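Input (structure):
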C-alpha cells in the first residue's frame, strides 16, 4: 500500500532516516503499534533504512528484534517466538550469540562532530517594531485583566490582541467571544509575546539580525551564541 501510494504521487524514496527510532519499536507482550506498522511499511519499501536512537532497547531484547525486522524486509526476524527461543534465555552463550547477531547492524559508538560550540549569553535589545508590539500586547492585556477583575469584558482590548476571532462576527456576539478569550488570558499573553520576541519576521527580529551580524563579523565561522531578547 505504501509503495502504491508513493507511485501514485510520484514519490521515489531511496532512503529513510528515522530519529528517535525507539518510539517505533514493538516488544513482547505488547500489541504492535500503528506507528511501528507504518514505519515497517516505509522501511520495507526503501533500499536504505537507518534508525537513530540513544536507547536501542529500553525494555527487553524483543525491541532489538523489532528493530531488525524493520531493517530486513525478507522476514528473517519476523518470528518473535523463534527470536526468544534463540536469544531470550539468560545465559552467557545466549548473550554472546545476540551480540554476534547485532554487531554488524548496530553502530553503538559515539560520533564526535568536528565542530565545536562556543556558548555565550548576550542581551539583545528588541527591534523597534518588536518593542512597539510588545508594549501594545502588554497594555491590552493589562486592560483586559483589569476588566475581568471587575466582572466586565474589555472587548476593544481583546480585539487588539486577537482580531481574527472577531472578524466577520456580528457585533452582538463580540462580548461572548471576549468572555471566552478571557478564560485563557495568561496563556494568550505568553503566546503572543513569544511570537513577537522569538518568531518575528527576520527583518524585524533582533535575535536573527544580531546573529547575522555576529556571523559576518566572525572570520572563524559561526559563533553559536545563546542570544536572549529582552523587552
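Output (sequence):
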Amino acid at each position: 500500500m505504501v509503495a502504491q501510494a508513493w507511485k501514485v504521487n510520484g514519490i521515489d524514496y531511496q532512503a529513510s532516516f528515522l530519529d528517535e527510532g525507539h518510539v517505533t519499536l514493538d516488544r513482547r507482550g505488547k500489541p504492535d503499534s500503528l506507528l511501528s506498522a507504518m514505519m515497517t511499511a516505509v522501511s520495507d519499501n526503501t533500499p536504505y533504512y537507518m534508525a537513530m536512537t540513544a536507547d536501542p532497547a529500553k525494555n527487553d531484547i524483543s525491541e532489538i528484534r523489532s528493530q531488525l525486522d524493520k531493517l530486513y524486509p525478507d522476514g528473517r526476524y519476523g518470528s518473535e517466538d523463534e527470536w526468544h527461543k534463540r536469544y531470550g534465555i539468560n545465559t552467557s552463550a545466549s548473550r554472546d550469540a545476540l551480540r554476534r547477531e547485532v554487531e554488524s547492524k548496530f553502530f553503538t559508538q559515539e560520533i564526535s562532530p568536528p565542530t565545536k560550540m562556543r556558548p555565550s549569553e548576550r542581551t539583545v535589545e528588541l527591534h523597534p517594531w518588536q518593542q512597539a508590539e510588545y508594549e501594545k500586547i502588554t497594555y491590552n492585556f493589562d486592560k483586559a485583566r483589569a476588566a475581568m477583575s471587575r466582572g466586565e469584558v474589555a472587548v476593544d482590548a481583546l480585539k487588539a490582541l486577537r482580531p481574527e476571532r472577531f472578524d466577520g462576527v456580528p457585533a452582538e456576539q463580540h462580548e461572548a467571544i471576549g468572555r471566552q478569550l478571557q478564560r485563557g488570558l495568561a496563556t494568550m499573553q505568553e503566546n503572543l509575546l513569544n511570537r513577537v520576541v522569538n518568531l518575528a519576521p527576520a527583518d524585524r527580529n533582533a535575535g536573527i539580525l544580531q546573529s547575522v551580524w555576529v556571523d559576518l563579523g566572525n572570520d572563524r565561522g559561526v559563533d553559536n551564541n545563546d542570544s536572549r531578547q529582552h523587552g
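Notes: Confidence is low (pLDDT under 50) at residues 214-228. The chain has two domains: 2-102, 121-230.
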